[in-house]
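Mods, move this if it's the wrong board.
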Amino acid sequence: MVQGSEQQPSLDVLRREGADILILPSPLLDEHHIEHVQWSDAYVLVAARNRSLTPRPFHELCESVRYVSWRHAGVERLHSQLAAAQVRLSHRGELSCVATLLDLVAKGQCMTILPSRLIPDDSHLYECIRLPVQIERSISVIARPGSLLSNAANEVIEVLKRLPVGG
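Not the wrong board. Structure tokens:
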């Protein structure tokens, strides 16, 4: 938890809601001793692939298919941005497991909105539709160069370094 009085400039991206994930070693050093990797991608509507192979319009899917959201740190911001753009979804619940959510989508039980990077490369089961408003998520990883982060944190940093910056 970050107290409002703490002066840690590297946390500004989190305070401004510019990032969904922030990985920090302890103790945090000043900006000159920080390695910062940033990555972002856009959210897309994910539905079961239409058998007629004709893409369905966004508004048609919203009216006919139940929406199950992915429970994650950015879900409230995602929903508020959709509401501000007057996008109405028939919200039927939420799941935290992406694999389970994608399985339900593939079976035609629901649709969801996910960051595009979470859709498997062999996405022949899914139809990905751009949202009427561009909504992105950003991940910032802030660490001391050469710090002893956990194996999981180091793996995230290595994966992010291999991805193209900005999407």
